[in-house]
Amino acid sequence: MSSSGYLRGRRISRRSAIRSAGLVGAGLAGAALIGCGDSDEVAESSSSSAATQAATQAAAATQAATQAAAAATQAPSGGPKRGGIGIAQSATVYESFDSQRTVASPVLGITSHFQNKLLRFTNPDKGEVTGDLVETWEQADPTTLLLHLRKGVKWHNDGPGSRHPAAKPGREFVASDVVWNIERQARGTLEDGTEASFGRNAYWGKIASIDTPDDYTVQFNLNAVDATFIQGLANEFNYFNQPELMTAVEGKHTEIDAGNVIGTGPYILTEWIPGERVSAVANPEYYMDRPYLDGFVWIQNFTDPVAYRVAFEQKQVMSFTDPDPTVTLAMNQADPDNTNVRYSGVANTVACYTNTNLPFWNDNRITRAIDMSIDRRLIIQQLHGGLAKPSGPVTWIQDAWAIPQSDLETTPGYQSGAARDNDLAEANKLWQAAGGPDHGDIEWTIAKLWSDRASWAITPDLISEMFNTAFNTSQFKGVSKTYGEIIPSWFAKTFDPFFAWIPNIEIPDARADMYSAFHSSSASNIWSVNEPDKIDKPLEDSLAEFDYDTAYELVRGVQDFAIENGQFGRHIAYNYVVPGLRWNFLKGPYPEDPATMWSFLNGSLWAHGQWNDTDDPSWEGVSQPTPASL
Predict the structure, then answer these.
(1) Is 2.60.120.330 the CATH classification of the domain at 97-264?
(2) pTM for the full model?
(3) What's the confidence (pLDDT) of residue 491?
């Protein structure tokens, strides 16, 4: 049984978008799947030649897409092959081993290989799902969802996690496991009653009660009709922990170690040492005839692009992206017979944040002034060479729900030319009226994970100069801070203004994201927005609406209202496109378009579907590391 979350197909071809890059100043965006966790999604350009470079990249992109299409149509001999090791990039720092508490996708790149969800995406961009821990499901009525669990799914019977004294290795996954995982997130506390941050708290809070008629049946009784709920079960944050083990270790969730986790997934995690090594081996008792690979090794972030490039050229890693996308395209052009390029859109939206919970920043005039003064197209050209497209409160990636680009071009904060001059004039009036010049120095934080990337190192100066120019001042100072500093202050609502990725867009149906960000009851409403009539009711009505046009108009009204109010401090800027280079032997669950990759997180797809074509000529000379053994 499967389901699609899109009510009407309005997705645009990413290839068509790539070909249009450079035609509209901002160029075209695509999506990088890993966002704040990937070290490779960096672009660099010279402001004096930005337009030329964007056009050049567009031509190169078309050529690379043609080459990718040719490579992709070469049928692998004999279909998927078994054996070998998968190699992926990952971060050097993880803030939690608990996928339910992480706010960063690097953790999910690991957990997606050793844990399961209730449902998983077969096409994450369209919201199409299939059963995972659940075998079949049925909508008994608009607020009742009945899930039939897959029998015989067992928690890993080997590996470091299974040897923890509290673990229950080999135990069958049953209905009580579902209840425990959901209730801890919905209530927002650990087993001992300690309050904790769970990013999906609002999502699971939609369940009024859970019934378990037997060990293999789970009934969700929702508080209200929610047309997006099914998609949410498959999002990349909803992996399931073993209650016995997690209860014992959840108080030290930042102490990353393979011995603190256990799963039911296709791989068994054997080692997780941040900054050194992460590895896993195939689960011999997995419920389906997967994975194809014998094991997986995650290479820690390449902070030196040159070292990363050399590692790819020596086939020590299977894929590559560079801070400068022209480098990636040039490498493909240098070896078109053995490599291919695919374009992916960044599911982590880029945004500026102001803290409307604090004095000065809680003045709506300041919020609107900041939003109108952000030069989205300047940032896109400076950091991405035009390979990006502005996003409104709903990202352009969720295009069935987004404000069309033609409308954004006439929206304050998104305009160019003389219209932007008018925006800046209005922003200055608001800034002056709210006492902006008297506020003193303003430190604007850039996430260190962002500014540490060579071609984005200019960001602290770029952002501070953008605001100083807009307000004819020298008050703004760019600084860098780690996510370890930013995230706690984020949840405490004490954060300083900053520029970085927004947490992952989790599903293509944008109604859930809008509810999470702006509904007054949502724990993710960091800005403490409280608009019962203008926001809460329209969003509630849209979630209960199965007619697309009606639902879209409701969401569009909330977006327009948010922009009128400077997006309440959640200043969405843009989403960008990254060309990724792969050796031809790397096979996996690609989209139908041979030039594109998924926009949304898709770790479970790769965990189940990646394989190495050892008969492909590009396989010669491949380095195969050995994962830590069980």
Answers:
(1) no
(2) 0.78
(3) 86
